[in-house]
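Quick illustration, no need to memorize.
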Amino acid sequence: MRRTRQELESVRDDAARQFHAGEDALVHVEVEVRQAKAAAHGVWATAAWLLGELQAAPISQEWYEYPYTNRQVGLERTHARDRIEGNDWPDVDRDYAAGVQYTVGWSFWPDEERPVPGAG
């Protein structure tokens, strides 16, 4: 990953604020979402998982030893994409998966736009 712990913590906290904003939540992901709140939840879960604060991966619920390998993190992005495309993970909310997919990509590519706006 290319993001610092501080960047991940900031996105985690801002995603929590967006989740609590409910229908007024603001998120930036690669696909159109119906419920930004669900996408913000996916952003939060992914950032918290990448920080080692959640043991289960956001889509697969697999447990990996922290710190995670790039392959393990990338696999969650693949799972999220599979859900968005309707190929797998039918019990996972599509908008949540969009938040997961974008946040994993954002964690690797420094020129990607933040998945949620910063506070203030």
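The longest helix spans residues 5-20.
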